[in-house]
From TrEMBL:
Keyword Glycoprotein: no
Pfam families (alphabetical): Flavin_Reduct, Flavodoxin_1, ODP
Function, as annotated: Mediates electron transfer from NADH to oxygen, reducing it to water. This modular protein has 3 redox cofactors, in other organisms the same activity requires 2 or 3 proteins.
Domain Flavodoxin-like span(s) in chain numbering: 384-523
InterPro entries: Flavin_Rdtase-like_dom, Flavodoxin/NO_synth, Flavodoxin_CS, Flavoprotein-like_sf, Metallo-B-lactamas, NADH_oxidoreductase_modular, ODP_dom, RibonucZ/Hydroxyglut_hydro
One MF annotation (Gene Ontology) recorded for this entry: electron transfer activity
Disordered: annotated span: 36-68
Protein origin, superkingdom: Eukaryota
Keywords: Electron transport, Transport
Protein name as annotated: Flavin reductase-like FMN-binding protein
Native organism taxonomy: Eukaryota, Viridiplantae, Streptophyta, Klebsormidiophyceae, Klebsormidiales
Needed co-factor(s): Fe cation
Stated family: In the C-terminal section; belongs to the flavodoxin reductase family.
PANTHER family, alphabetized: DIFLAVIN FLAVOPROTEIN A 2-RELATED, FLAVIN REDUCTASE-LIKE FMN-BINDING PROTEIN
C-alpha cells in the first residue's frame, strides 16, 4: 500500500509523497535460464517477477502468441511552446481488456519538449507503435540529442519502444538520463533480460516528491508521485513554461478521434472519459482521490459559465472566452489567473491515452473529483476487495473485468496488488470489506510468494469466513495456483459467490464477460446481505409511504421482449419489458437495462442487439427460461430455437417480431441505463398473435 503525506517542494507547494511500505518482494530466479523462460511463459500478466525455487522444471506449455501487428500510425502535433505530442493512433481494438469495450480505437501518446538546455521525451508507446514512433521521432530531433527520458508509466509492453530508441543512439552518445519512480526503475532494470547490457545506456534517477528538473527557457519540470495498485509506478509531470500537466493514465480515454485535442468537449468525449474511469480508476478510487487532493489544479482557460448572467453580461463572458482561446492559439502573452497558494495553473492535461485536454480541463477535473467521491461514499455502504498479483497482464485484466462487474452493481472496490502490499495490509483491507476475490498466475506450478502471503493472512482472519468470496487466475499450462487457492479456501470454510475462473493465456471476450458477470454475482450477494440487515431497521411509516408510490408506478406497463447481444465470442440475453418507441424518423426505441445486468457491458454506445418481441401465446415458456438463475458465462438461450439474421443478430423462432438495433446513446438513470437505439432491420414473423404485455402490481421490482 502507499502512505501519503505532505512535503514541501517549494514555497507554498503541496506535493504528493508516497512511501513504499510493502514487505513483499518479487520472487528471485534461482534456477537455470531455461527454467526462467518456462516460468515467464507459464503465467499471465503484470509485473511479478517469475521465480522458481525448485530444481524440477515444470511442464513445457505452448508459448504465448506474438503480439499482432495492427494498422497504426504516429503523428506529431504541436501542443505548446517547444512542445510536441507523438500520437500513436489506431482505430482497431488492439487489446481485449475490459477498458477497450467501447471499440472506438485508442491513442498512445508520448511527448517531446525541446528546451534551451536539453530535450526531454515523456513516455514511450506500446509495442504496437514502436517502428512508427522511432521514425517520427527522428523527424523532430536527433536521437542522440535527447537528453532526458521522463517516465510517467512503464510496463513490459512498452519495453520494445525503449529498446528500439536506445539502439538508434550512437555508441558515443552519453547515457540517457531517466527520471522515474522507484517501481519504474525496477521495471527498467529488467531490460537486461531482453537485451544484455542495455541498462548501461541509461542513467536512472529515482524521482522523489518535490524533485524538479530545469530544461532552460522556463521549462521547469516538477514531479508528482501518483501510484495506484494497478500502476504503482505512476508519476505526473508539470511544465511551468507550457502549463501542461502530463498525467500518464489519469484523464485518459480509449478513443481514436481525428481531433488531437478535446474539440467538442464533454459531448464528444464525456462517455469515453467516464468509461475509462469506471474500468480503471473506480477500483482504486482512494488512490485517485489522493492524487487529485495533492494536485490542486486551476484551469488557465475555463469554459463559459452563464450562471447568474443576463443580457450583455452573457456577451461579455463569450467575448472573454473567445479572447482566451485566440491568445492561446496565437501564443500571445496574457495575465496569469490568480491562484491560491500551492495551486498549479494548468493550460492542458496531457494523458497517455486519448486527446490532449484543453477546453474541458475544469469540467473533467471536477467530474473526476465527483466520481472518486461517489466511489468512496459507496465504500461506506459496502465494499469488495480485489486481491491479485500478475506476471504479464492477463491476471490483471481478469481482475479489472471482475472489478467492472462489482462496480456496475453499485458496490465499491478496493484493489490490492500483492506485490505492493504486505500481508498485514491485505488482512486489514479484507477485514473492512464485505467480500473479496483473490487472483493469481501460476508460476512453476505454484502461486507466487506475494499471493501465498496474502492468502495466509486471509485464512488467519476468523471473521473473513462469513464473507462471500471468489478465486481467479490465468496460466500457460495447468493452472495449479487457482486450484490451490480454491481448495485452501474451501478447506477453511469459505463460501464462494461464483465458480473458480481459470483462463489459459490471454482472456477472450467471452472470458472477460464471465469475469464481469462473476463480479456482479459477488456484489449482488453482498448487497442482498446488507439489504436484509437494513430492512430490519426501517420504520413502518416510511415503508407504507414508499409502497403507495411503488404501487402507482407498477401500473406503467410495457411489451414483453427478449434482448440478445453479441460481441465476438461473448453473448448474453435478458427479458425486457421497459421498452418503448422513441422516434419515427429514424425508427428508434428506448430500452431500460439495469446496471447489474450481464448484457449491460455488451450494449454500450455503438453496440448492437436484437430485440425479440414475444406474443401472448408463448411468452410464458420463453420467460421461464430467462428468469431462472444463471452461472457466470452460462448460455441464456439454451433450449430455445433460434436463427441468425444477416447482420449476425439472434432471433427467437417463437418471437412474433424482431428488430436489429444499434445503440445510438445511453443515459444513466439511477440504477438503470436507458438505451436509445436505431432499428436498422426488422421483420414481423407472426401477424395473428398480439404482443405480450408485462403487468405488475409494484414498481419496486420487475
Amino acid at each position: 500500500m502507499q502512505a501519503g503525506r505532505q512535503a514541501n517542494g517549494g514555497p507554498g507547494d503541496r506535493l504528493w509523497l508516497c512511501s513504499q511500505t510493502s514487505s513483499v518482494q518479487a520472487f528471485r530466479v534461482v534456477t537455470a535460464s531455461k527454467h526462467r523462460q518456462v516460468a515467464r511463459r507459464a503465467a499471465d500478466g503484470g509485473s511479478v517477477q517469475a521465480t522458481l525455487e525448485t530444481t524440477e522444471a515444470p511442464p513445457r506449455g505452448p508459448p504465448p502468441s506474438a503480439p499482432v501487428k495492427q494498422e497504426s500510425e504516429v503523428r506529431v502535433v504541436d501542443i505548446g511552446p517547444d512542445t510536441f505530442s507523438l500520437r500513436g493512433y489506431s482505430q482497431d481494438r488492439l487489446k481485449f481488456e475490459i477498458e477497450y469495450n467501447l471499440k472506438r480505437g485508442t491513442t498512445n501518446n508520448s511527448y517531446l519538449i525541446q528546451a534551451q538546455d536539453g530535450t526531454a521525451l515523456i513516455d514511450v508507446p506500446d509495442q504496437a507503435w514502436t517502428d512508427a514512433f522511432v521514425e517520427q521521432l527522428k523527424t523532430k530531433v536527433g536521437i542522440d540529442d535527447i537528453t532526458y527520458l521522463i517516465l510517467g508509466h512503464f510496463s513490459p509492453k512498452r519495453a520494445d519502444s525503449l529498446v528500439a530508441l536506445l539502439k538508434e543512439r550512437s555508441s558515443n552518445a552519453p547515457p540517457l538520463k531517466v527520471h522515474c519512480s522507484n517501481p519504474a526503475r525496477n521495471a527498467l532494470l529488467e531490460l537486461d533480460n531482453k537485451e544484455p547490457g542495455l541498462t548501461e545506456k541509461l542513467d536512472i534517477k529515482v524521482a522523489k516528491a518535490g524533485d524538479q528538473l530545469d530544461l532552460g527557457g522556463g521549462h521547469q519540470l516538477r514531479f508528482f508521485l501518483t501510484p495506484t495498485p494497478r500502476w504503482p509506478d505512476g508519476m505526473m509531470t508539470y511544465d511551468a513554461a507550457s502549463k501542461i500537466l502530463y498525467t500518464h493514465k489519469l484523464f485518459s480515454a480509449h478513443v481514436a478521434s481525428e481531433n488531437d485535442f478535446d474539440r467538442g468537449g464533454w459531448e464528444a468525449f464525456g462517455v469515453d472519459w467516464k468509461y475509462y474511469f469506471d474500468c480503471m480508476l473506480a477500483p482504486v478510487a482512494r488512490q485517485a482521490a489522493a492524487a487529485l487532493e495533492k494536485l490542486p489544479i486551476a484551469a488557465q482557460i475555463k469554459g463559459v459559465s452563464y450562471a447568474g448572467l443576463r443580457g450583455v453580461e452573457i456577451v461579455k463572458a463569450d467575448a472573454k472566452f473567445i479572447s482566451q482561446v485566440l491568445r492561446s492559439f496565437l501564443k500571445l502573452p496574457e495575465g496569469e489567473p490568480a491562484a491560491a497558494e500551492g495551486v498549479i495553473v494548468v493550460k492542458a492535461l496531457a494523458p497517455i491515452h486519448g486527446p490532449v485536454v484543453r477546453s474541458t480541463v475544469t469540467e473533467l477535473v471536477r467530474e473526476y473529483r465527483e466520481w472518486t467521491a461517489a466511489q468512496i461514499q459507496l465504500a461506506t455502504e459496502a465494499s469488495i476487495a480485489v486481491i491479485y498479483a500478475s506476471a504479464y497482464g492477463n491476471t490483471a485484466a481478469l481482475a479489472q473485468a471482475i472489478s467492472r462487474g462489482v462496480s456496475k452493481a453499485g458496490v465499491s472496490i478496493e484493489t490490492v496488488n500483492c506485490e505492493q502490499s504486505s500481508a498485514s495490509e491485505v488482512a486489514e483491507i479484507v477485514s473492512r470489506s464485505d467480500g473479496f476475490v483473490v487472483g493469481s498466475p501460476t508460476l512453476g506450478g505454484h502461486m507466487p510468494t506475494p499471493v501465498q502471503l496474502a492468502l495466509g493472512a486471509i485464512l488467519k482472519d476468523p471473521d473473513a469466513r462469513a464473507k462471500p468470496c471468489g478465486v481467479f487466475g490465468s496460466f500457460g499450462w495447468s493452472g495449479e495456483a487457482v486450484d490451490e487457492l480454491e481448495q485452501r479456501l474451501k478447506d477453511g470454510g469459505f463460501d464462494f459467490a461464483f465458480p473458480a475462473i481459470r483462463c489459459k493465456f490471454k482472456p477472450t471476450e467471452s472470458m472477460l464477460q464471465t469475469c464481469e458477470e462473476s463480479g456482479t454475482d459477488l456484489a449482488q450477494a453482498v448487497r442482498k446481505a446488507n439489504t436484509r440487515a437494513r430492512k430490519s431497521k426501517e420504520k413502518t411509516a416510511t415503508s407504507l409511504a414508499s409502497s403507495a408510490v411503488e404501487q402507482a408506478v407498477g401500473r406503467v406497463v410495457g411489451s414483453l421482449c427478449v434482448l440478445v447481444s453479441r460481441d465476438g465470442d461473448a453473448e448474453s440475453a435478458m427479458l425486457a419489458s421497459w421498452v418503448s418507441q422513441a422516434s419515427f424518423n429514424p425508427p428508434g426505441l428506448t430500452v431500460a437495462v439495469a446496471k447489474d445486468r450481464a448484457v449491460e457491458g455488451l450494449v454500450l454506445e455503438g453496440g448492437r442487439f436484437t430485440l425479440n418481441v414475444l406474443g401472448q401465446d408463448n411468452a410464458g415458456k420463453v420467460s421461464k427460461q430467462l428468469l431462472k438463475p444463471f452461472k457466470p458465462g452460462e448460455a441464456r438461450l439454451q433450449g430455445l430455437e433460434t436463427q441468425e439474421t444477416e447482420s449476425g443478430g439472434v432471433v427467437l423462432n417463437d418471437a412474433i417480431a424482431y428488430l436489429d438495433c444499434m445503440v445510438k446513446s445511453r443515459m444513466e438513470t439511477g440504477d438503470h441505463y436507458v438505451l436509445y437505439a436505431i432499428a436498422e432491420n426488422g421483420k414481423l414473423q407472426n401477424d395473428r398473435v398480439l404482443t405480450a404485455v408485462h403487468y405488475r402490481k409494484t414498481g419496486a421490482r420487475y
